[in-house]
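Q: Please design a sequence for this.
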């Protein structure tokens, strides 16, 4: 599998896509497959050389389409349909958090070139608070603040947008990050998150990479900062 993906790998940009992990078990034998972004693989050539392997990228539709149909199940739903879907999801939260599917999650994360070292669905669902109506989600008071912001002087500061998925799942909390800074320019050269929900971490890290402090204002080449995400439903 790895050799084939490497042989037919390509470089391409992508706007919205997914990676996947497949865990196949037969008796006592288990095989774990990492499926990287479709945009990273020349599926046309792979299909010509090995049709069965190229079919692995169709697995997600093989599972989803018979259950939900071919339309996008996450867009254009009524509030009633949305709640039905949320309640169905809520029923499987304990099973997801049990760790049973973490091996597949780890394979998907690795195929996505993520820096998430120990992928866990329990961590993702730790702050989940159950179904919420569209009206409640839209009227929720969303807040993102940089804790102790007065300690830092910025030449460029971007404030993140609250992740839609996190807002819908009512996920909130602090994200602590370690910033590497070029003293001469104030440029943030690297960002590593050390705590916080993974969805919020990805959002905070992507935003912090856009920051630029005033030259020689940080006092050190590495500083710790905390972004606080909070929401309050009426």
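A: Design:
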């Amino acid at each position: 599998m790895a050799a084939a993906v490497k042989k037919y790998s390509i470089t391409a940009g992508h706007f919205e896509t997914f990676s996947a992990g497949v865990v196949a078990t037969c008796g006592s034998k288990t095989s774990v497959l990492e499926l990287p972004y479709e945009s990273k693989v020349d599926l046309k050539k792979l299909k010509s050389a090995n049709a069965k392997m190229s079919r692995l990228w169709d697995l997600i539709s093989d599972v989803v389409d018979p259950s939900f149909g071919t339309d996008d199940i996450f867009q254009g739903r009524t509030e009633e349909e949305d709640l039905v879907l949320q309640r169905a999801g809520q029923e499987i939260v304990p099973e997801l958090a049990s760790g049973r599917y973490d091996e597949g999650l780890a394979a998907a994360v690795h195929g996505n070139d993520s820096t998430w070292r120990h992928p866990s669905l329990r961590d993702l669902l730790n702050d989940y608070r159950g179904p919420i109506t569209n009206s409640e989600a839209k009227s929720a008071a969303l807040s993102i603040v940089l804790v102790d912001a007065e300690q830092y002087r910025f030449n460029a500061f971007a404030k993140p947008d609250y992740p839609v998925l996190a807002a819908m799942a009512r996920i909130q909390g602090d994200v602590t990050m370690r910033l590497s800074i070029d003293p001469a320019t104030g440029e943030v050269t690297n960002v590593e998150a050390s705590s916080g929900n993974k969805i919020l971490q990805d959002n905070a890290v992507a935003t912090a990479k856009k920051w630029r402090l005033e030259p020689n204002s940080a006092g050190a080449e590495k500083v710790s900062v905390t972004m606080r995400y909070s929401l309050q439903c009426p």
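Q: Thanks. Anything notable?
A: The chain has two domains: 2-125, 134-232. The mean pLDDT is 83.
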